[in-house]
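Figure 6 in text form: structure in, sequence out.
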């Protein structure tokens, strides 16, 4: 990796402002999944052990901007509430206080929580720090300036910052104050990556730049339009591109198949045809489903019982909707994975939220779990599916960022990485 990491700088006695991803799921103030906290620990512990003053910042959820004078974008159901009620509700749902309590348990009682971000509490907590101490600031997004990448907010945050450390891969594709802006104004001595970002870039970057071949990418999910950039970039790199999910029907249409009532982006059919052509030009094998699981309608609720049948992909009845890849396709895709040496997967093969329609996604997850190839799961739904099926340990790498990993696979430079010092 060409970016500096925390190992490239002397952190002893330095205030290190670390952007971490502590956006954990919570229910009634209780953390329901600690993965992100655990993911942040190696960087935090390294900095503590090396005598840094560790100031952590993160967002949590999609809160109202309660630290501004005017609260913006109030949802219709909350319009009748007073400011006090909105503040109380937001703090209950999105305060990082419970995360600080858990971190404090995990880090030997060294963690102090500041109930504001740049205000007097934070300033006092930071002023009182000794080397090896940790302060967690309150939710960055309680300030609207965070996502607006406001210069004044960057400057205020930078007061806590001799060295800026970005370790939040999940938000590295955003140019927010804490993810990129802060490093823009020459206010910090250094801007470096933490271990989590380093690993993401090394594993995914390594696969894209020097893959052990055959290199197979599997793309699924709802829309071609979301993944055009990724498909385009991967067509320059992979040996085989496998398509599943609702995305496949836009490609079917491009091939002249009827798609019934399946999700299909009519305005992207031409583009799908161009991508098929590009694959042929580049001698990339593009695999589309040969058979499709169809039903009369989309399941509602999504996990309700559903009657399905399997049809060849070029024979989807006019009144039926494709909702998963069929059995023959599952076998073909599993075989392609088995023959591969590097596999990248992003996006489910069908409506995996429904057990009847999860078989395609499960088959792909299982194929990845049973290969010795390097296997990389680009966050989001595929990561959730792999974890849910108990295959997490069998993968080489599960990305911690859905949107960020997609942009990375697209070949884009992430603002949260671009802002870091080069080696
Ligand atoms: P994405 O966010 O683009 O990765 O898409 C994930 C969503 O695509 C999931 O919620 C799936 O239920 C949905 N999806 C996958 N296959 C289909 C399909 N054949 N028809 C409708 N939705 C689908």
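Output sequence:
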């Amino acid at each position: 990796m060409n970016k500096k990491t925390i190992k490239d700088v002397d952190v002893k006695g330095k205030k290190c402002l670390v952007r971490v991803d502590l956006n954990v799921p919570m229910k009634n103030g209780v953390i329901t999944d600690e993965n992100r906290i655990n993911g942040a620990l190696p960087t935090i512990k390294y900095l503590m052990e090396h005598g840094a003053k560790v100031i952590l910042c993160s967002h949590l959820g999609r809160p109202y901007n309660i630290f501004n004078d005017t609260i913006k974008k109030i949802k219709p159901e909350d319009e009748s509430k007073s400011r006090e009620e909105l503040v109380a509700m937001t703090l209950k749902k999105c305060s990082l206080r419970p995360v600080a309590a858990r971190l404090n348990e995990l880090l030997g009682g060294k963690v102090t929580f500041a109930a504001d971000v740049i205000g007097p509490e934070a300033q006092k907590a930071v002023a009182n720090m000794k080397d090896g101490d940790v302060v967690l600031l309150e939710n960055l997004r309680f300030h609207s300036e965070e996502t607006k990448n406001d210069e004044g907010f960057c400057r205020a945050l930078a007061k806590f910052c001799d060295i800026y450390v970005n370790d939040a891969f999940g938000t590295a594709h955003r140019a927010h104050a804490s993810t990129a802006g802060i490093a823009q104004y020459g206010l910090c001595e250094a801007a470096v990556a933490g271990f989590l970002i380093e690993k993401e870039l090394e594993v995914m970057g390594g696969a894209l730049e020097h893959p052990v071949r055959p290199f197979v990418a599997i793309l699924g999910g709802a829309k071609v339009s979301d993944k055009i950039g990724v498909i385009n970039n991967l067509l320059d790199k992979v040996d085989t591109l496998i398509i599943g999910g609702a995305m496949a029907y836009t490609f079917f249409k491009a091939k002249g198949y009827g798609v019934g009532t399946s999700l299909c982006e009519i305005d992207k059919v031409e583009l799908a045809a161009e991508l098929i052509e590009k694959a042929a030009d580049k001698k990339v094998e593009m695999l589309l489903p040969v058979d499709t699981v169809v039903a009369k309608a989309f399941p509602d609720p999504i996990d309700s019982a559903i009657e399905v049948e399997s049809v060849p992909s070029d024979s989807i009845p006019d009144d039926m909707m494709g909702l998963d890849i069929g059995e023959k396709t599952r076998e073909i895709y599993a075989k392609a994975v088995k023959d591969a040496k590097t596999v990248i997967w992003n996006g489910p093969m069908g409506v995996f939220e429904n057990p009847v329609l999860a078989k395609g996604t499960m088959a792909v997850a299982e194929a990845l779990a049973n290969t010795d190839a390097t296997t990389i799961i680009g966050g989001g739904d595929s990561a959730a599916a792999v974890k849910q099926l108990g295959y997490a340990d069998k993968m080489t790498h599960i990305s911690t960022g859905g949107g960020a990993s997609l942009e990375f696979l697209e070949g884009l430079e992430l603002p949260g990485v671009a802002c870091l010092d080069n080696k």
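Caption detail: The longest helix spans residues 35-49.
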